[in-house]
Design brief:
The complex is a heterodimer of chains A (349) and B (364).
Chain A lengths: L13 H12 L4 H21 L3 E2 L2 E2 L1 H26 L7 H17 L4 H26 L3 H19 L4 E2 L13 E4 L7 E3 L1 H19 L1 H11 L1 H6 L4 H27 L1 E2 L7 H11 L11 H20 L7 H24 L1
Antiparallel strand pairs in A: 1-2, 3-6, 4-5
Helix pairs in contact in A: 2-12, 2-13, 3-7, 3-8, 3-10, 3-11, 3-12, 4-5, 4-6, 4-10, 5-6, 5-10, 7-8, 7-10, 8-10, 11-12
Chain B lengths: L7 H10 L3 H17 L7 E3 L4 E3 L1 H24 L7 H18 L6 H29 L3 H20 L9 H8 L1 E2 L2 E2 H19 L2 H10 L1 H6 L4 H25 L13 H11 L11 H20 L7 H16 L1 H14 L5 H5 L8
Antiparallel strand pairs in B: 1-2, 3-4
Helix pairs in contact in B: 2-13, 3-8, 3-11, 3-12, 3-13, 4-5, 4-6, 4-11, 5-6, 5-11, 7-11, 12-13
Classes of the chains: A mainly alpha (349), B mainly alpha (364).
Chain lengths: 349, 364
């Protein structure tokens, strides 16, 4: 797959040459790398401007904790979305699935169902919606866009039928345990490094996603399908099974993200997650995954999600930027990244 | 075509094979459901004082107008194998510009101010469409991501223009767009019909439609056949932006307020739904403007029906999902084969050939 193009005419130091050769070989890593650079750049800027990381000689663990806590659900979504986009598909349903699964789970516990069971139900609801999209796509020839659009409408409509009022999670419900603070480092005042089981779940999801995508046959099949579905099928790869798997998994991730988010927020609502599918897609694209499929990394999407999350933090800290500008800046960042990807793909040709 | 014997059965058979046939069926069924609930649903009353016609059907036509406009723009974009997610945001941005202009201008009540607002809004829509088109055609970005950026930027732009407020304005001429009547019909519907017919005529009487389809089927082959895809792509996205600006003015004019978070929100999905109902494939190529209009009418009839039956309007998406799933299932190979096989089992003696013949002719 790697096309190592050595330009004979290039002059310069040998170090520069080797960097160039590395970039040529790993050109598709560049957008992910750029996302990482931008993330670090934002951290440095935040540190210089607002003392985001170290202030008054002590680590600001609170910043890092909040970044993880507030974006755990988006990281989980982005991992699922990466798999789907790598095969050249798309999943528009995740935001709506979150609304339905969290609402269904909370209403079930409030109606007396065991909280642990309700949590399992929340995740499985996502699995079912994902499976539904997958079946429509694989067995009935729906385009992924249409199938997941239908699932999105279905989940959002059903959620609204369940309730249009916010449903509070009982304070002593086991669901709350997902957002229980685990203090890792006891910082000064409120600056503790805190994780929650929700954050741990996100980290576990990332690790699992990385392992499946880069270390298993399923992962290689995902890339192969993105390259060319026909070729993958002709090679005897289990295309049907894999595609069903990725949509089911993306749905499951949405269910899990719903659980994590609901626990953190303490309530479920039918309008939760509106537009999150687009945020997840944006995070994935910023992280270096090509929308056409076959190129991308799970870890890149995690960085993408964190870039978006950190941007919100920086804009909030900087009182001078009106909040109206947030979406414009998000859009601009997204544009910069796709332009970068475009430049790289052009060079490869 | 055996036009000699156009009996009812064959006319019906031909219509049934049109892609938007099931959309029409859905409209009839929905109207039927409403009639069962209230037999006077279709009644149109005439107000002698104002000369206005009013009734549920006219409400549906008025509500359908903006969706018709964006659906037609979306149809052209999708025909080139693209997609325009930004139409809802273009609506709110152009609506915001119009409202802000009317609220700030010296003579806010004059017809001249209304004209200025209209032109300004159209310019904003066209500019946003143009930008998307240039990014897609000349820079080579994917339509999905380009218009997603434009979608984010558009709604942000609307908030920046109005300073985050829901700007109000009053101007009789501008509000006439949404609330006035022509020959008893809502002005918005008349405008939408005129625009759609114009677009359809231009597209079908010239080679434009064919060239757009050619790009959607195979951009490379189209280029080799002497079609210049870039200019056409820019045109198509600009037209979509213009039409969305028109739709945006329609939706702000009815209440003379722009709601920066709600105006046009999620309407890109409605437009996509309309053309799926109308039989345009998202993969590009063949498109049906008439079908998209049928789709737009179906969606608004569905909205109206859900409201009329007393179901919470926030549950409407579930019914839209049902419509998409049923329509696409009817078009899917697997379900068709299943239905055909059942028919074949029933009529094994009669004519098995009759089952095999209605294959669509393949054009290379």
């Amino acid at each position: 797959m790697s096309a190592v193009a050595v330009h004979p005419g290039t002059t310069g130091t040998s170090a520069w040459d080797s960097i160039k050769r590395f970039l040529d070989a790993k050109a598709m890593l560049l957008p992910t790398f750029a996302a990482l650079v931008i993330f670090v750049g934002m951290l440095v800027y935040g540190q210089a401007e607002y003392g985001l990381l170290v202030s008054g000689g002590s680590m600001q663990w609170g910043t890092i904790s909040n970044l993880l806590l507030n974006n755990a659900h988006m990281i989980i979504l982005a991992v699922g979305m990466t798999f789907v986009i790598l095969t050249g598909g798309i999943d528009l349903s995740v935001g709506a699935v979150i609304a339905f699964s969290s609402l269904a789970g909370v209403m079930l516990t409030n109606a007396g169902l065991n909280g642990w069971l309700a949590m399992i139900v929340m995740v499985l609801v996502g699995t079912l919606f994902g499976l539904f999209s997958g079946v429509l796509i694989q067995y009935f020839n729906f385009q992924p866009f249409i199938a997941t659009l239908a699932t999105m409408f279905l989940a959002r409509g059903l959620a609204s039928m369940l309730s249009t009022d916010p449903q509070r999670v009982d304070a002593d419900s086991p669901i709350k345990l997902v957002s229980a603070d685990i203090k890792l480092i006891d910082g000064p005042k409120v600056n503790d490094l805190i994780v929650t089981p929700g954050v741990l779940a996100a980290i576990l999801v990332v690790a699992l996603g990385f392992w499946v995508l880069h270390r298993t046959r399923t992962g290689r099949t995902v890339y192969a399908i993105g390259g060319s579905e026909t070729s993958a099928a002709l090679m005897g790869l289990p295309v049907v099974r894999t595609k069903l798997f990725i949509y089911t998994m993306s749905g499951t991730m949405a269910g899990l993200a719903g659980l994590v988010y609901t626990a953190e927020l303490g309530k479920a609502q039918n309008i939760t997650g509106t537009g999150w599918e687009l945020d997840a897609i944006a995070a994935t694209v910023i992280g270096g995954t090509l929308l056409t499929g076959a190129f991308g990394y799970v870890l890149g999407s995690v960085v993408g999600a964190l870039v978006l999350g950190l941007m919100t933090v920086l804009i909030t800290r900087n009182g001078a930027i009106p909040s109206e500008w947030t979406t414009i800046i998000t859009g601009a960042i997204l544009l910069v990244f796709v332009l970068l990807q475009r430049a790289i793909t052009l060079r490869r040709k | 075509m055996n036009s000699e014997k156009t009996d009812w059965a064959s006319v019906l058979g031909q219509t049934a094979r049109k892609p938007f046939f099931w959309g029409i069926v859905a409209i009839v069924v929905l109207l039927g459901i409403n009639l069962v609930k209230d037999p006077s649903f279709l009644a149109i009353s005439y107000n002698a004082n104002t000369g206005y016609l009013s009734g549920n059907v006219l409400d549906i036509l008025r509500a359908a107008a903006p969706i018709m406009l964006i659906a037609v723009g979306m149809t052209l974009v999708v025909a080139t194998a693209g997609i325009d997610l930004s139409v809802g945001s273009v609506m709110v941005a152009s609506g915001a510009v119009a409202m802000q202009f009317l609220a700030g201008v010296n003579t806010p009540g004059s017809a001249g101010a209304a004209l200025g607002a209209v032109l300004l809004a159209l310019a904003v829509g066209a500019a946003m469409g143009l930008l998307s088109g240039v990014l897609v055609a000349y820079v080579g970005l994917q339509p999905f991501i380009t218009t997603l950026v434009m979608m984010m930027a558009g709604r942000g732009l609307a908030k920046v223009i109005t300073g985050g407020n829901n700007t109000k304005a009053s101007n009789d001429a501008f509000s006439w767009i949404a609330n006035g009547r022509v020959l008893g019909f809502p002005v918005v519907f008349v405008i939408a019909v005129v625009v759609v017919v114009l677009v359809a005529l231009v597209i079908r009487w010239t080679a434009l439609g064919m060239m757009i389809e050619a790009i959607g089927i195979n951009a490379n082959a189209a280029r080799m056949a002497g079609i210049k895809p870039r200019g056409l792509l820019v045109t198509v996205y600009t037209v979509s932006g213009l039409l969305a600006a028109g739709a945006g003015m329609m939706s702000v004019a009815s209440v003379m307020t722009v709601d920066v978070s709600q105006t046009g929100n999620g309407l890109e999905m409605d437009a996509i739904l309309a053309l799926v109902v109308g039989g345009t494939s998202l993969a590009g190529g063949k498109f049906h403007i008439g079908g998209s209009v049928v789709g737009a009418l179906m969606i608004t009839t569905l909205d109206k029906t859900v409201k009329f039956l007393g179901i919470a309007s926030s549950a409407t998406p579930a019914f839209k999902a049902a419509v998409i799933i049923i329509l696409c299932l009817l078009q899917s190979e697997r379900v068709r084969n299943l239905l055909l096989r059942r028919r074949r089992d029933k009529s094994t003696v009669a004519a098995p050939i009759a089952v095999a013949t209605p294959k669509e002719s393949v054009t290379a």
